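Researcher: Next entry in the queue.
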Amino acid sequence: MKKDTDDNKIIAFRIPLTEEEEEQTLDLANKIQVITDLANEGIISQRSRVRIIKKLIY
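Model: Structure for this entry, 58 residues:
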């Protein structure tokens, strides 16, 4: 039997952020991008990238 593809739909909601929350989110996204770029260039390991990002988030 084929699995119904409707079971795999992702539903997302946009929660309005305050200006401060939006700035914090953008700051975090920029930091993650820099860390990812460093890892992709081989300056830091992928394992270090994961560890650093986890510390940033939590």
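Model: The mean pLDDT is 87.
Researcher: Noted, moving on.
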